[in-house]
Amino acid sequence: MDFYQPFYDKLNQGAIIGDAFVTWFHNPEIVKWNKELLYYGMTILGDPLLTIYMT
Fold first, then answer.
1. Rounded to 5 degrees, what are φ and ψ at 45?
2. Mean pLDDT, 10 residues at a time, over the chain (55 residues)?
3. Among candidate residues 12, 29, 13, the one with its CA nearest the CA of residue 1
4. Do residues 14 and 54 lie in contact, with contact meaning Cβ atoms separated by under 8 Å?
5. How far, in Å, CA of 43 to CA of 55, rounded?
6. Would you state the pLDDT for residue 1?
7. pTM higher than the cut 0.85
8. Which residue, 13, 26, 28, 34, is most buried by CB atoms nearer than 10 A?
9. In sequence order, what are the residues at sequence separation of 6 or more whose Cβ sits closer than 8 angstroms to the Cβ of residue 17?
10. Closest Cα partner for 18 from 29, 5, 7, 28?
11. What secondary structure does DSSP assign to 22-49, as a single string?
12. What's the confidence (pLDDT) of residue 17?
């Protein structure tokens, strides 16, 4: 996973995994680099509606 910080920041704010992925996917840095490298570098397997809670 490249440019991962927006993904984990969103999870840290309590977002579901699917919303965190969308935030990461629309990261301007990814769009800039994707024009040259033609890849995104991340796959999520499982339920994108899960929320991670840490105690």
1. -110, 130
2. 83 88 81 63 71 73
3. 29
4. no
5. 26
6. 66
7. no
8. 34
9. 11, 44, 46, 47, 48, 49, 50, 51, 52
10. 7
11. HHHHT-HHHHHHHHHH--------S-TT
12. 86
